[in-house]
Amino acid sequence: MKRIILPTLILLAASAGISLHAQETDSIASRQADSLRHVFGRQHVAPTNAISTPYADTLDTGNPAVKVVLYDNGTYRYVRDLSLMAADSVFTECWDTRNVNPYRSEPDPIPDKFTLWVVDSLGAYCCPNQVKPRSLFGYRHGRRHQGIDLPLSTGTPVPAAFDGKVRISDYVSGYGNLVVIRHANGLETFYGHLSKRNVQSGDWVSAGEIIGLGGSTGRSTGPHLHFETRYRGAAFDPAWLIDFETGTLRHRLLKIRSWYFNPNQRYVQNVDDEDEIFRTDEEDRLLAEEQAKKEAAARAAREAAAVKYHTVRSGDTLSSIAKRYHTTVNRLCQLNGIKSTTILQIGKRLRVN
User: Global pTM?
Assistant: First the structure.
């Protein structure tokens, strides 16, 4: 099926490493990128058809990092140049074909909030298995379940969710036959309990390409696909990314919070939270200013409500008033702009705190 390419300069710049060199252009690009969070980033994405035919040829484009791939069935697709992608640090740093978490010895602090383009004008998506999940992310029987279980029959083809490079294709303890794919944005997807693996470590795969067959190998109570999503070794609920019952990708732009990586934190749909996550930087700034004004007004109101006054009566002196309100004459003078020798007038209000 022919794919329509969205002519978005910002996405190509972000995905393929195009350098925008003028300061004015940078400013425009920044504003355009902000607007994409609403019009493009938060769009849902339906799964693409699996690419089942080999490619016939590749063509150059005006961008050396982007190629046009022509397939035998007459379809084409814009993709990143694999020779350039292979040299990217995403595919060279902490690259380990055996250890499930290659970042364990070099843990990086995860920011409180950051964004990742999951599918842009050069990427595609395919649901690994459209079905109602059977076992969710979190603790299960006292053990941490770092993914989601998707029921399927043994031998069912399992597609890659996104374009990427196979890091692990091996039999790994409780996972059984496991395939781990690292993607250009740093995400990794895990496909466990396979009955057969169709790819090898180092292979480049496209979204929808069959990487193996479903099964029940490893620690498994029946045929299902164990699917995980991780960022720098830290697992988060795949349901933040994919609606498995409809097969759709929730958003092209994934906004991640640090608390997503809490093993007790499962996906919960909340429109208000979603709106907050997808606010532009300018909207964040304006809302922060508005919130600061509200907080300042509330603080001033609280302070005003807490202020106490004393109405001067016959026989009152500064000393007697200070003693009554547990303060000092000097403090009374400071609060009211008077001197210790000032003659008090009956009926005058004095601030006492």
Answer: 0.68
